[in-house]
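Title: Prediction job returns without error message
Component: structure pipeline
Severity: low
Priority: P3
Assignee: unassigned

Description:
Job completed but the reporter wants confirmation the result is attached to the right record. Sequence as submitted:
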Amino acid sequence: MEYRGTTVQVCGLWPFGTGSTTPMVGVPMGRHLYTGATVCFDPISWYVRAKLINTPSLWIQSEPAMGKSTAVRRMVLGLAAQGVTPLILGDLKPDYAQLVAALGGQVLRVGPGLNQINPLDVGPWRQVRDTVTDPKEQEQLHAEVVSRRLHAVAAQATLVRGAPVTSDEVTVLGAALRYLTDRETGQQPVLSDVVQVLEDAPEQVRWVTLWRAEEELPRYRAETENLRRTLRALLYGPLGALLEGPTSFTIDLSTTALCIDISGINEADQLLTAATLVSAWSVGFGHVEAAHRLADLGLAPQRSFLTVLDEMWRALRVGHGLVDRVDALTRLNRSKGTGTAFVTHSLADLEALPHSEDRAKARGFADRCAVLMVGACSEQELDAVARVRPLSAAERREVLSWSAPPSWAAGEADQVHPGRGNFLIKVGSRPGIPVHLEPTDIEKRLGNTDFRWDMR
C-alpha cells in the first residue's frame, strides 16, 4: 500500500521506527498485504531453521486458478536452490514438469504407451540389504520391504475391488510377499509373481491360513479365491498394461528435482489415474526411505526432500478403504528428513468420499499438517477450514474478499482476478499472515497451464 503526505506530516515515519513481525526465514513468497513487508515461508525452513512448526508439512487449498500451483512452484524453486530435492509424485496437468526440466531435474512420463511402474518396486533396497551385516538390521530391513510392498499391492487391490481387502486376505498376501522377498536375488518381483505364488500355494503361504496339509489344499483355495480373483483382475484388467512388469525407468534422487508426469492419462479414467498416483507414491516414497538408509550407512550423502502430493482426493474417492493404504504409503514424518505439501481445491474434496469412516480419516491429512495455506474460497469452505484451524472474524472477511469477482470491464489484457495470488498462512491459533505472491515472468512461462488459449 502507498500513502502520500507532506514532509511535515510524514517526516517522523522515516526511517520506519517499527519492524515487521513476518518471518524472514525460508523461500520469499511475496509481500504482506498490509505492511508490504517480505514474507518468507516453506515448511522445511520453518521446521528446521526457524523452529516455528513441529513438523514440516503443509496443506494448501484455494479455488481453481487462484495460484495454488504457482505458490508450490515458488517453494520448489526456492528449496531446490537450498539443496532440498523436490519430488512431484504424480503431476496431473502437468503443473511442474517444465519447471523441473528447467532446473535440470528428472521428468518421467508415465501412462499408456509411456513408462510403466511396478508397484512392488521399493527402490535401491537390494544395495542397502547387501551392505547391512547386523542380523537384527537385516531382519528389520526385510520387514520394511515386505510392509511397503504389502501396502502397495493392497492399495491396488482395493482400487480394483472398490472395497478394502479383508484382514485374512492381507495376512495371506503378506505371507506371499514375504516368500518372494526371501527368495529375491536379481530383479524385483512383479504382480504376476504374487499371483503365481498364491496359485502354487507353498507351505509357507498355506501355513497362515491353517490349511497346511496337502489334503487341505482345496480349503486353502476356497479361502483365497476372492483375493486371487481380485489380483487377476488387476493383472489382466485395464491396469495390467501399466502395472505389470518391472519399472521401465530409473529414479535418480541425486537429481535437482524429480517429476513423475502422468498428464498422458485421460482425466475421465479415474481408476487408471488413481492406480498411477498410488504407484507413483509407493515407488517415490520407497526410494526416499532407501536413500535415507544409504545415508545412515555412509554410502550416500544425507539429503532432504519436499514431496508434493497434488489432488490426492482423485485417488481416495475411487475405493472404500483406500485412505488407510495411502496414509501408510505416504507417511514420512519429520524423522525421515522429508517435508510434505498436500495440494487440493477444497476440504470438500475429502468430504465427498462415500463412507463416513473414510471421510474422518481423510480429514486427518489436513489436521496433521503444521501449516494451512488458504487462498480464495467460499464461506461454506471457510466453515470447513475453521474445523481444522480456528479463524477470526477478520481472517474470514479477508479470505472471503479474495473471492470477489473482477470488474465487468471486458477486453483488458492485463486484467486478473483481484484475489489471485493471495493466501493466508495459518499456524495453529496464531494470527494468519496475509501474503500476495506475484510470479516473475519466467515463473509464468514455466507454469502456464493456459498456453493453448494464449496461442489463439
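Comment from assignee: result matches the submitted record. Residues 118-246 form one domain.
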